[in-house]
Please model this.
Amino acid sequence: MTKLHFYFHDIVSGKNPTAVPIAQANSTSYSPTGFGQLAVLDDRLTTGPEINSTTIGRAQGIVGAASLDEFSLLMSLNFVFTKGKYNGSTLSLLGRNAVLHEYREMPIVGGSGVFRLARGVATAKTHVLRNNGDAIVEYNVVVLHY
Model:
């Protein structure tokens, strides 16, 4: 069993965003939840919440607004570790992220390298959500693997 703690920096604003929209529903009706929008991301994973914290990897994948009733994302991500003893290893997350809930739990469905055959859970808690949409999210991950 391995326990990990890191921060996820989701930057949607400015000239160098790490999360960008790629598609939206072809509909004339407005959705307050963003239903039908898709984005691709390549967000930094760091040891702390500060912008200058050490980068330990990237969160790479696709997220989609998948709820008519609340701001909730379907997340398909790979946590790609690039530093330390997990360098070159990945964890795959696939699950629902009810973004405005204080505490969210999502399944880890696989991994590679050190995390081969991983199964586990990732919990997320928003550390900072700025008016421009940028967010820093604290993650705790517990995985079983070989």
User: Anything to note?
Assistant: The chain has a mean pLDDT of 94.
